[in-house]
Specification:
copper; transmembrane; globular; transmembrane helix; Thioredoxin-like_sf; alpha/beta
């Protein structure tokens, strides 16, 4: 056979793709090696489906709000423990005298004062819900006052013989004038008592209730300043003594039931 003919026979073979024989499972076993893992299937691993993605977002949001609420409860309990340990519950509250923004002239217990005033003595004989806030508060104060309104309405229906008076004490004496507080409280319960004083009087009553507030002593009524304060509704018994402090995380149903429980204990 000539050299030309040999090259003609082998050229087609060289043009074919080279195929490498892979060992079979039997050959792997005979060689004493493990069988190679099967190659992954494309349809096994993939991106989130719309349903799983939505479920992931819902679960994440739920966990966020749960732990945020839990943290707020822990902080409020620590604050209440601090008040109880540092000062003692019986010492919370005390004498004060403030302008009664919602009273009519001549209705004050202090007849010598031409301006209606409200004192700690006016709290005797009734259960009182005392909240410290300010009228320029954008969201927290209105929400807490709405909650107190709902609680008072609930108690008036379920326990008609229970006298409960809601009290609002301003921590912003520079801007919260009596006329402003009076108009502001009209949006809430009609029995709300609105109280204001000068800076020294406000500081004194806040100190007696262990309330923190950040209003500057020389604040400009027309200025733009921030006010931070403690967010608690204080329950005082008919003797004017502190009973409990309800935090922001406690809803109106829990608050109403807690007050009923305290009233039952008081009556016993």
């Amino acid at each position: 056979m000539s050299l030309f003919r040999c090259r003609a026979q082998f050229v087609p073979l060289l043009r074919q793709p080279l195929r490498v024989a892979r060992p079979t499972r039997i050959q792997y076993r005979r060689a004493g090696t493990s069988v190679p893992p099967p190659s992954p299937q494309r349809n096994v691993v993939g991106v989130f489906s719309p349903t799983s993605a939505a479920l992931f977002v819902v679960v994440g949001a739920g966990m966020y709000f749960y732990f945020t609420n839990k943290k707020q409860k822990v902080l409020e309990e620590r604050e209440k423990e601090r008040m109880a340990k540092s000062y003692g519950r019986p010492n919370l509250g005390g004498p004060f005298s403030l302008i009664d923004c919602t009273a009519t002239p001549g209705s004050s217990s202090n007849k010598e004062d031409s301006v209606p005033r409200f004192t700690d003595q006016d709290m005797l004989g009734k259960w009182s819900l005392v909240y410290f806030g300010f009228t320029n508060c954008p969201d927290i104060c209105p929400a807490e006052l709405d909650k107190v309104t709902a609680v008072v309405n609930d108690l008036s229906k379920t326990v008609p013989s229970l006298p409960v008076q809601p009290i609002f004490i301003s921590v912003d004496p520079a801007r919260d004038k009596p006329s402003i507080v009076r108009k502001y409280l009209q949006e809430f319960h009609p029995s709300y008592i609105g109280l204001v004083g000068d800076y020294a009087q406000t500081k004194a009553v806040c100190k007696s209730y262990r309330v923190y507030f950040s209003t500057p002593p020389d604040a400009d009524p027309n200025g733009d300043y921030l006010v931070d304060h403690s967010i608690f509704v204080y329950l005082m018994d008919p003797e004017g003594k502190f009973v409990d402090a309800f935090g922001q995380v406690m809803n109106k149903e829990e608050m109403a039931e807690k007050i009923k429980e305290y009233v039952r204990e008081w009556n016993q």
